[in-house]
Specification:
This protein has about 210 residues and is mainly alpha-helical. The chain has five helices and two strands; from the N terminus they run ββααααα.
């Protein structure tokens, strides 16, 4: 025997819901959601979904720390990348020299061994050369950064100049001067490349 006047369904948390099964009560007309100028809000979270989407990466850093890695952290990546680049370039150069020097030989085991020796020798030479340059550049950069207490493009260009001068230090004063100019030029081009977007935006603002 039904003791109620209508069909009642009980929700998950014990709340009674009148009406046929599967129906839900209409929202209260007195509830006003701030929709103007914003995306539709979730009636359950009451949060604008736009605030849940992050356009930039979030970092958990110590107080006063910079998002960018310092030169000491980047030194390992720089040296490793230089060694791998030198090994790859040297291997290709050794392969080219090997084919050139064994051009008159028949394609047999002695020719293969000679080409392989040339590839490994050139790869090791270039990896050692670029790795040494990257090590000197990173050491100068870290020392200058700690000495000045700042990190900017001036550190890059000074470290590049000192690296070129030290690398050519066995070639006399003329060689040292040439090495310094070469290091300054390469580091200046690198600094220009890193700041190219900022330079373009500055030029665009001045032209308006």
């Amino acid at each position: 025997m039904d003791g109620g006047s209508g069909n009642k369904n009980f929700g998950l948390f014990g709340g009674g819901v009148s009406g046929p099964p599967g129906d839900y009560p209409a929202p209260d007309a007195g509830i006003q959601l701030p929709l103007s100028g914003m995306s539709p809000l979730s009636p359950y979270l009451n949060v604008d979904p736009r605030y849940l989407t992050q356009d930039q990466d979030e970092f958990i850093l110590p107080t006063g720390a910079n998002k960018q890695r310092g030169r000491f952290e980047l030194a390992f990546f720089t040296i490793g990348s230089a060694c791998l680049t030198g090994a790859s370039f040297g291997a290709l150069n050794g392969l080219r020299l090997g084919f050139k020097e064994t051009h008159g030989m028949k394609w047999a085991k002695p020719r293969n061994v000679q080409i392989l020796n040339m590839v490994t020798r050139q790869g090791a030479v270039w990896a050692n050369t670029l790795g040494s340059v990257a090590l000197m550049y990173s050491a100068f950069g870290v020392a200058i950064e700690y000495g000045r207490g700042a990190e900017d493009d001036l550190n890059t260009m000074v470290a590049g100049s000192l690296t070129g001068m030290l690398y050519k230090s066995t070639s006399g004063l003329r060689g040292v001067a040439k090495g310094g100019v070469a290091g300054l030029t390469l580091s200046g081009l690198y600094a220009l490349y890193n700041n190219w977007d900022r330079i373009k935006s500055s030029m665009w603002r001045q032209s308006i």
